[in-house]
């Protein structure tokens, strides 16, 4: 066999090991940076078009990030990256505008013992399929992830208890919970304490989200509208995978992760399994399920960066990792609200 034939066989064999990427992700390998930027601009940031300096500045960052996305996708990982609404941000901007430094100091504060200790964990569950999860929301350029994580778990337990899925007000938590810091960050434990002390929380429809509230105004009529109430909250035992499986078998759970890395910023699909993150918590999200029967078992996590990020707004994180803190630290600080049925 000649050298050409040998090389051809090796090339085919190599191609056989490459992960098949979705069509829109594969398309990123073709076309110019400017072509991709123009299409991205129309979808994500149309308001940039009237600002020539802004467009030029963002294009430089976008092009650099696109090169890195292509480089990582060529490595045939268990996940893939693509264009998101955050692809025009530097790492510093991304951390400043979207993440939550308050979570780094998160401590377990619940006095209520773990209420799901006797629950038999199922093999897999997806609370979206059961109707307990509202559509993906978007926090915008505001470090209010803690509020979205909190409303998500309250929406879930309220549905489980009442059969009614009610979208709750992140704006109320951002504006009225004075223990936390609005767009400057906060803790899910504090949000639950606020709702308990306030006697409830308003609906999204009545007190809608505005992404950034400079004055954090808290209208008394909105704060006094108690669409959903909770009676307590409890922390899942830290660094305990089995306990989180038990809790998630019973209800959606608020969790905190470390998200300050390029992969998370530009994640579009697959299972994040590698050591791309640590356990320095900086982002509040919502665990809505898991699958321990998959070839690579994973947690299902709802984010708050809109449906164009990730898998329609969700990310899958590996369950079986060597780090006792879990993938991206998700086992460090899980917490969920409680509604007594009495």
UniProtKB/TrEMBL annotation:
Q: Does the keyword DNA-binding apply?
A: no
Does Repressor show up as a keyword for this record? no
Keywords, alphabetical? Disulfide bond, Hydrolase, Protease, Signal
> Which BP terms from GO are recorded?
proteolysis
Family matches, as Gene3D superfamilies: Cysteine proteinases
Under the heading InterPro entries, the entry gives: Papain-like_cys_pep_sf (IPR038765), Pept_asp_AS (IPR025661), Pept_cys_AS (IPR000169), Pept_his_AS (IPR025660), Peptidase_C1A (IPR013128), Peptidase_C1A_C (IPR000668), Peptidase_C1A_papain-like (IPR039417), Prot_inhib_I29 (IPR013201)
Q: What protein am I looking at? A: Cysteine proteinase
